């Protein structure tokens, strides 16, 4: 029996592979044709081989909340997600616009604060954000760039148009899955990739290295990737990117501030470090400046950074723009700095710190998705239509106690892509995290990490909550 999409049901959702009449969308023709030439057993064999490859390569993540084991692979689905060239052109333009405005916003709020003085963003909102770091006031990062690497989460609703779900501006993760998913699909369906005009992504490590070199003023700068260590959930990615770029992977034991510079311990003595791609959260970077209890930071690092003797990517302090309440103001931020309307809209957002919005949220909580301002990974969230009365009352209580800490959004019917479930294809909800590099200009990598909510009916795509991933094919 051959694999078939004949019984696939789009069920009223926007489907990325089939339109409402069941016709295959542009870019999927070659994949559908090849998939339906394969027997079900062969299709399953290829899927299992892909998952075995991930484990053999050590492409795993840690789940802190589970006691039975620290590592697991992120499930990969071998049915790709395809994005048409026209859709991508608009998305790319919108991401460049958004990153440009957010970089101007960060530079402003830590320096002149014009946007606060003009009342476009409430001052108390910034000053009450736990990610607004006072030691960064007056900071001027190298080349004026704050956000060198961004992973912006996008979703499609019922109309098929992309919307921004959230911005990840501190240490966005997942790019190693994006790169390895493409390598897996090259081996799994080489003939399909050969027939489909897919933009390449394999040069990401080279582009990342060039960006890190650009932000240093020194010729042939020494670059390192700073990791919290082997128990971090994204440790594989830290080691992978260091290896791909040909730079050292270091932790707190390898670096020291000495004679006004950050230096790396080597077998030949100290070596000056010029650029640090840090995969450590802002407040753990330097125990002398931020959290005094941090055991993974470098004492004195911020003094060297402020003196311009080392570059950090991303700059400390960027987390304030990750705040989900600040997210609601990004359309106004774009308008303020660029005089433009957002090319990619936000999801409609209710700010619980504003009285009218808060009243609406409390009265309609069963219809809404409620999120904590600074949580990530699918935690601190209530999905109203799938919640119990007890959960709704608990969140109402939390909102009333600390309205500043919550936003709410309508429950969006995320677009779906066919996934291999048991021995057949079923639709599952997806989002997309494209990666954007900001060095000598803003570059959007043509693809990204498509995350899949593998549990039937689930809208939560995070790997820590049972999600998986797909290769993303952006067409020429």
Automatic annotation (TrEMBL):
Database matches in InterPro entries: ATP-dep_Glu-Cys_Ligase-2, CP_ATPgrasp_2, UCP005522
SUPFAM superfamilies in UniProt: Glutathione synthetase ATP-binding domain-like (SSF56059)
Gene3D superfamilies registered for this protein in UniProt: 3.30.1490.270, 3.40.50.11290
Residue stretches making up the Circularly permuted ATP-grasp type domain: 80-453
Taxonomy, superkingdom: Bacteria
Name of the protein in question: Circularly permuted type 2 ATP-grasp protein
């Amino acid at each position: 029996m051959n694999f078939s999409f004949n019984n696939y049901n789009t069920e009223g959702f926007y489907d990325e592979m089939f339109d409402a009449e069941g016709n295959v969308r542009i870019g999927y023709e070659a994949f559908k044709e090849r998939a339906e030439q394969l027997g079900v057993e062969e299709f399953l064999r290829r899927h299992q081989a892909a998952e075995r490859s991930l484990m053999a390569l050590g492409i795993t993540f840690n789940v802190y909340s589970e006691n039975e084991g620290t590592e697991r692979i992120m499930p990969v689905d071998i049915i790709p997600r395809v994005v048409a060239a026209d859709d991508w052109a608009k998305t790319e333009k919108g991401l460049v616009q958004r990153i440009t405005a957010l970089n101007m916003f960060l530079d402003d709020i830590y320096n002149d604060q014009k946007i606060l003085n003009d009342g476009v963003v409430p001052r108390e909102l910034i000053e009450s954000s736990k990610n607004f770091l006072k030691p960064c006031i007056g900071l001027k990062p190298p080349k004026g760039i704050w956000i060198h690497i961004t992973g912006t989460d996008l979703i499609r609703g019922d109309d098929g148009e992309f919307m921004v779900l959230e911005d990840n501006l501190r240490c966005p993760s997942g790019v190693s899955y994006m790169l390895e998913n493409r390598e897996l699909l090259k081996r799994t369906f080489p003939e399909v990739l050969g027939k489909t005009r897919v933009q390449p992504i394999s040069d990401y490590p080279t582009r990342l290295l060039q960006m890190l070199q650009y932000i240093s003023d020194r010729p042939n700068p020494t670059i390192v990737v700073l990791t919290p260590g082997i128990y971090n959930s994204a440790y594989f990615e830290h080691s992978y990117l260091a290896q791909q770029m040909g730079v050292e992977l270091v932790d707190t034991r390898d670096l020291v501030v000495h004679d006004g510079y950050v230096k790396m311990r080597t077998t030949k003595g100290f070596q000056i470090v010029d650029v640090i791609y840090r995969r450590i959260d802002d407040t753990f970077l330097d125990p002398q400046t931020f959290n005094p209890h941090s055991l993974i930071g470098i004492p004195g690092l911020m003094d060297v950074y402020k003196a311009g003797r080392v570059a950090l990517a991303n700059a400390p302090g960027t987390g304030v723009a990750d705040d989900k309440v600040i997210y609601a103001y990004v359309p106004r931020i774009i308008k303020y700095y660029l005089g433009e309307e957002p090319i990619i809209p936000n999801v409609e957002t209710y700010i619980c710190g504003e009285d009218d919005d808060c009243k609406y949220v409390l009265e309609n909580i069963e219809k809404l998705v409620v999120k904590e301002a600074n949580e990530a990974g699918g935690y601190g969230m209530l999905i109203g239509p799938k919640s119990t009365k007890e959960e709704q009352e608990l969140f109402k209580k939390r909102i009333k106690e600390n309205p500043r800490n919550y936003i709410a959004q309508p429950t969006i019917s995320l677009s779906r892509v066919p996934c291999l479930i048991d021995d057949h294809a079923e639709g599952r909800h997806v989002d997309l995290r494209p990666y954007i590099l900001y060095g000598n200009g803003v570059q959007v990598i043509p693809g990204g990490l498509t995350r899949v909510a593998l549990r039937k009916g689930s809208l939560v795509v995070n790997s820590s909550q049972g999600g998986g991933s797909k290769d993303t094919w952006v067409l020429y």
